[in-house]
Design goal:
Elements lengths: L1 H15 L5 E6 L4 E9 L2 E10 L6 E5 L3 E6 L7 E7 L4 E9 L2 E10 L4 E4 L5 E7 L11 E8 L2 E7 L1
Antiparallel strand pairs: 1-2, 2-3, 3-4, 5-6, 6-7, 7-8, 9-10, 10-11, 11-12
Amino acid sequence: MIASLAAMAVAAVVVATPPPLASLRMDLEHFVMQATVIDGDAGATLTIECVKGCARPATLTDQAGDTPLGLFMPFDAVPVLMSTWSSGSAYRIRAYRLTSDGIVRVLDASSLAAPSVVVTREGRLEVLATERPTDGATRTAARSVTWVWQTDRFTKKTRR
């Protein structure tokens, strides 16, 4: 009787846990990270955690509130997790630098059009986005923005 109650309790927990909307396991050079997006009452939540080989426990939880579109690592040379989201009137792209010492959000950008993540011929990681200028003029045309990876962070370059 006690064993069957315990089995029902475990089954209830399994049923109550929603399946992830997205998931990505990243086997990096000396450590392994796992990223998972789950849906909740306040929208989607991204959790990134080190599951093996980190210097200390590392977990980052990011409440997005938007609709997830994808999780990916652009290429192995740069340990950066990219996540794309739809917020209804714009796209969001967030990037997280992954190291065995921890996880840091290094980009949180918006784009009026679908953003592009590219690796240039020189091997540089770039995020191409379109944004409305911040000069207060609502009729000003959107402009192209490029976020360029610089060793451990992204820097913004604006084109007219």
